[in-house]
Every structure is written in structure tokens, then in C-alpha cells.
Amino acid sequence: MVLKPRPDGSASALPLAAGPEPFLAAGPDLPPSEGSGLPLAAVHEPFLAPGPEPPLEAGPEPPLETGPEPQSAESSASAATVSCAAAVTSGEGNPVSVFPFGDGWMPKAQRRKEYVLLLEDIRVSFDGFRALDGLSLYLREGELRSVIGPNGAGKTTMMDVVTGSTRPDSGEAWYAESVNLLEKDEVFISQAGICRKFQKPSVFETMTVFQNLELALKAPKTVWSTFRARVSGEDRDFLRSLLDLTRLAGESGTTAGALSHGQKQWLEIGMLLSQKPKVLLLDEPVAGMTPQEIDRTVGLLDSLRGRCSVILVEHDMEFVRAVASRVTVLHQGRVLAEGTMDEVSRNALVMDAYLGGASC
């Protein structure tokens, strides 16, 4: 129903034709058209349905920032090897990498798994004297390694670091993958399986050879456990095998003080082996021996191959040539050369620094 104006200005209600009222969308109020006479509410803007938005014009995509291309395994290995400051020399005197990884580089975690003993960049100073100057050495399980060098080269200090009697100024020392030797004391390191023999034999001279081996057996060493200790049949078989290994089976009941110098050296090696070590450090074991005793010692050390790892410090070059498959030469606290005895004996730097300019 709408209002229709009358001539006098009033409005009358007239019915519209039947049907729905048209839908008018609400819009903003506008002033009435001039002369229409219609009230404000009857004037509306038409409803416009929203159409599709015009497509956006695609502009050029911004360039992606690219970082440095990842290095291949070969290039990164080469870069790591070049970054190592320490170097040794080949038999011809040319510098080669000190790290025994060929032309590549081995991650630190893998190095610990690969080597039973790992020394890296060890530095030790005593009152301004640098005994070790960036020493790195890697020992595989079951390997027999000889370490040679002139007096003052750092051989004894290196073994002191390994056994925990000397703390380095810097560097890393790892054993059996997870043991940080720089955090352990001498007792822990010895019980963990690193045993050291000094140059002078140390045996109980008033006790028999068998008693010396029995006393050195790996077992708890507290007062109470020592009083209660009993040697089992398995232990006796193991000790007899050590007597055979050290060529002392015929001297089992002999007091240690009655043995020759060479026999005392063998007895002490047997005492260390009774503790079932993983790494054995030997400091000039054939010093003072007769030629016959040296030959027997060669056989003894040959029998240890694969049984435990051995670091042998020795000045007798013929003995080193007979027993060691790999030789490390130290000079002024660092590795000067490394390789077979034939390789290092032909090295010009080794001959000048240690061998007196003559091939050994």
C-alpha cells in the first residue's frame, strides 16, 4: 500500500495490485527530486550486485637471493686438510698432511671411533720451554707404533700426557672413543687400560716371578679385597700363558732379584700384560740388553700384534726396524715425519735433525 497525494495536499491510502512489494536495497538518504512531491522514504538508489574484481597484472617476480653453493665432500675435505697448520714431510722432503686420512678429512666423532688413542694439537710448556708444540698422533687398535727422535723431542712428555701425569696447556686427548684423558687422573687411566713401562725395570725382587705376575693381576686393590683374594684356575692358566709369552716359564719359582736385566724387563712387560691393557707404552725396553735378549724381545713384541696397541719409544734403530710397521719421528715437540722405517730413514729432514745426515 502506498500514499497517493490529493489535490489539497493530503494523502489517501489506495491499495496496490496484488503482488509482492519490490525489494529495495537500503541506501543513503538523498534529498527528494524537485517537483516530485514524494516523501524522502520513497526514493532509493538501485541495488548493484558486486561484480568480479579485475585481475591483477602479474609483475616480474623478484629475484631470489642465493647463498654460496654447498661444497662437495671432496672440496670440503680438501679445505679442511689445507687448514691444518701442522705438517710432516714425505720421504722426499715434501710436506704432507700430519693427519693419517689420505687426501680427505675425517669428522671428529669418526676419528674417535677409528683410533683407540687420539692426540690432537697437544701443547705443553715448562717455564717458557715448549716441550710439545702442536703434537698430533693417532694410534689404531692392535697397532705397534714406534716413536723416535732426539733427546728433548717430546717423547717422554707425550707419554706423560697420555698417562695423566702432565696436563697440557691446550689440545685434546681421547682414548677408546669416549674417555677424555685430560679430565682423568693417573689411577683411572691405568685402570681403564693404558699401562706404561719405564726404562728401568720395576719388579718385586724378593718375590718369585709367578708371585710378581699374580700380584699384578687385574683385580680390586682395596685392603679388604687383597686379604680375601684367591687365584682361580682360570687365572692360573692365564698366568702360565704369560710365562710362556715372556720366555720365563723355566724361571717361575725364581726370585725376581736373581734374574738378568733382560729377564727383568720381560717380567715387567708380563706384569703389565696381566692387567689386560688396551694400550701399552714402552720406554726403551731393550736398553742395556744383550743382542740375544734383543732378539727375544723382538719375538715378544711381535706376539703382541693384534693383542693390544703398543707405543714403543726407542733409540735402537735396528730394533725399531725389526718390530715397528709404522714410525713417527718427533722433533722440537711436533711430528717431523711419519711412515715406514725405510721411508723416514730416507727423509732429508729426519737425517739432518736426528740421524746425523746418514741413512739408518
Description:
The chain is of the alpha/beta class and 360 residues long. The chain contains 12 helices and 14 strands. The chain has helices at 73-83, 108-114, 155-163, 186-192, 209-215, 223-228, 233-245, 261-273, 291-302, 317-323, 341-345, 348-353; strands at residues 2-5, 11-14, 87-89, 95-97, 117-126, 129-139, 144-148, 170-175, 179-180, 194-197, 279-283, 309-313, 326-331, 334-339. The strands form 4 sheets. The chain has a 6-stranded mixed β-sheet with strand order 10-11-12-7-13-14, sandwiched between helices. The protein has a 4-stranded antiparallel β-sheet with strand order 6-5-8-9, with helices on one face. Strands 1-2 form a two-stranded antiparallel ribbon. The longest helix is centred in the middle third of the chain and has 13 residues, at 233-245. The protein starts with a strand and ends in a 7-residue tail after the last helix. The model is unreliable at 11-19, 22-28, 30-49 and 67-98 (pLDDT under 50).
Question: What's the assembly state of these chains?
Answer: single chain
- The string of secondary-structure elements, in order, is EEHEEHEEEHEEHEHHHHEHEHEEHH
What is the terminal separation in angstroms? 129 Å
The outline comes out as globular
Rg, Cα atoms, Å: 44 Å
Which class best fits the helix and strand makeup?
alpha/beta
Cross-sheet strand order for the largest sheet:
10-11-12-7-13-14
Low-confidence stretches: 11-19, 22-28, 30-49, 67-98
The biggest sheet amounts to:
6 strands, mixed
DSSP strand count: 14
Q: How would you state the average pLDDT, rounded?
A: 78
Helix percentage range: 25-40%
Task: Name the beta content range.
Answer: 15-25%
Tally of helical segments: 12
